[in-house]
Design goal:
The chain is mainly α. It has one domain. The chain is built from eight helices and no strands. Helix 7 packs across helix 8. The longest helix has 32 residues.
Amino acid sequence: MHATNTIVTSKPPKTARKPRNLRWRVVDIVVASVIGVASGLIFFAWNTAYVPLSAPLEPLLPGLQALLGGGWLFAGVLGGLIIRKPGAALYTELLAAVVSTLIGNQWGPLTLVSGLAQGLGAEIVFAAFLYANYRAYVAVLAGAGAGLALAINDLVLWYPGSAAAFATIYTVSAVVSGALIAGLLSWLAMRGLAKTGALGRFAAGREIRADV
């Protein structure tokens, strides 16, 4: 009998994937707060610009004014993209609404209700992807979610009993605005900040460095 030699090839052991830490750090709270406050100041400027900008849109096609809604939606999406922790989108959008309310605007305390709804709209999308996917299409979906929340909130609080045509145009316009302004532009802004090195302590910054 002839002995046969068998060659056994052993695969190198797989390295265990480090579990993601979804707990907030002090730096997360600080940066999220900065995003929220800065966004609230931008909201204040947008509150003033909204009236003259929306004036030609309403007679053109009632409901089309919601195309400007994205100017109030980016805080939650940007916060979610940078912090990448549960509650980040809700926190930054709501804080921006608080700042806008304290400074003063034409909608008063109901701005807080809007901020809560819009922040939840973006937060739900990030949660649906288990806070693990922050690609461009997820940012666009988060912006669209915030836009849908804006439309529902506004139709209930400010346009109750609206005709179906108006409600449809308003909702579609808000979703499109949220997707493009709050979603895509926030994703581009996040990438731009990361390339400067400003987000070095965040996954967003490390992700950009890995791509380079």
